[in-house]
Amino acid sequence: xxxxxxxxxxxxxxxxxxxxxxxxxxxxxxxxxxxxxxxxxxxxxxxxxxxxxxxxxxxxxxxxxxxxxxxxxxxxxxxxxxxxxxxxxxxxxxxxxxxxxxxxxxxxxxxxxxxxxxxxxxxxxxxxxxxxxxxxxxxxxxxxxxxxxxxxxxxxxxxxxxxxxxxxxxxxxxxxxxxxxxxxxxxxxxxxxxxxxxxxxxxxxxxxxxxxxxxxxxxxxxxxxxxxxxxxxxxx
Length: 236
Fold this sequence. Notes:
By secondary structure, the protein is of the alpha+beta class. The chain has two domains: 4-116, Phage tail protein beta-alpha-beta fold (3-Layer(bab) Sandwich), CATH 3.55.50; 138-235, Fusion Protein Consisting Of Minor Coat Protein, Glycine Rich Linker, Tola, And A His Tag, Chain: A, Domain 2 (2-Layer Sandwich), CATH 3.30.1150.10. Helix content is 26%, strand content 24%. The chain has helices at 50-61, 69-72, 86-94, 138-153, 189-199, 226-235, and strands at residues 4-6, 20-22, 41-45, 48-49, 64-67, 76-77, 80-84, 99-105, 108-113, 165-171, 177-184, 214-218. The chain has a four-stranded mixed β-sheet, with helices on both faces. Strands 2-5-9-8 form a four-stranded mixed β-sheet. The model is unreliable at 1-19, 23-35 and 117-134 (pLDDT under 50).
């Protein structure tokens, strides 16, 4: 099943002198790299120190994660609970840390500072839609973004820009959202529940169901009102 992601950052490799590697090996002593390694996986990683979360990710997937100890020191991950493709899961674990990741080989990710991302791969922090799956084109990604913004901007306590929340939307054949699940919750469970309930009433273009589930990452912005300003102008 295709996975698509909105508002994620991919980064170039950063070569440093000292690396830590989080990697799982089979009993034969070889990395567990295969096509299955990149299939959607169930993650149950609690909020914790980023280095520990990255090792948990590697244990779940068999994919090596290379990172500089100094780069991840004192950084924390909000964790991840739910099904996600490894690339999506790693980006969610890195959300809010100022770091990104990219494939340094077929079965290894390199973690680096987001400022090292090339211009054509970087994404401005927020919740702009960036198609990451083969089936989610720019038009479809934009449709999801606008629908999510409109739904949340209608409620003052849910307006995007003031919190970080990762979630997945399952979309039915008719374009209706059949389910929503939080992958990395915020510090306000009641607001999270209201957001998920609100998004379950979304109606999207029917063809987007082919990219279901779609992973959406809402991130804080300097001006939390930016996301909703355009919608308020249209309504006015």
